[in-house]
């Protein structure tokens, strides 16, 4: 029997977590790991106890900020990191699996928290229609290992 690689397991989990998102614009999932253990998980959406955008704003979604991003949502990476820290788990030296490459603000948080590696499935720049994945460039510049996950994952077509 062929056993799946941990990278495959973690990215598949991130894709499945993305399906939990209440965002009507984009579904993103993240898994924070250390060695072969899961430290934390997250998906994009408003903070717990606030709104579920797909339920409260099903047609237009939540209000957008000046850059066109959701004004209520936390990104999947932020949710995974915040949950780990809230539960007193160390994220230093960990690896983050995420279905969408981190934006620049998330990259700053990832670097500041001492996360050493990011494995992403899809390009943030392609999604936003911009020329450069600024978050990835920031991470590379400051020594965080970044790699694109190139295998096909079942259910990855459900990512809006």
TrEMBL record:
InterPro entries: APOBEC/CMP_deaminase_Zn-bd (IPR016192), CMP_dCMP_dom (IPR002125), Cytidine_deaminase-like (IPR016193), dCMP_deaminase-rel (IPR015517), Deoxycytidylate_deaminase_dom (IPR035105)
Pfam short name (any one): dCMP_cyt_deam_1
Residues of the CMP/dCMP-type deaminase domain: 5-134
Cofactor(s) of this protein: Zn(2+)
Entry-linked PROSITE patterns: CYT_DCMP_DEAMINASES_1, CYT_DCMP_DEAMINASES_2
Keyword Zinc belongs to the record: yes
Domain of life: Bacteria
Keywords per UniProt: Hydrolase, Metal-binding, Zinc
Assigned GO CC terms: cytoplasm
GO molecular function terms noted in the UniProt entry: dCMP deaminase activity; zinc ion binding
Family the UniProt entry places it in: Belongs to the cytidine and deoxycytidylate deaminase family.
Protein name per the record: CMP/dCMP deaminase zinc-binding protein
Organism: Cyclobacterium marinum (strain ATCC 25205 / DSM 745 / LMG 13164 / NCIMB 1802) (Flectobacillus marinus)
Lineage summary: Bacteria, Pseudomonadati, Bacteroidota, Cytophagia, Cytophagales
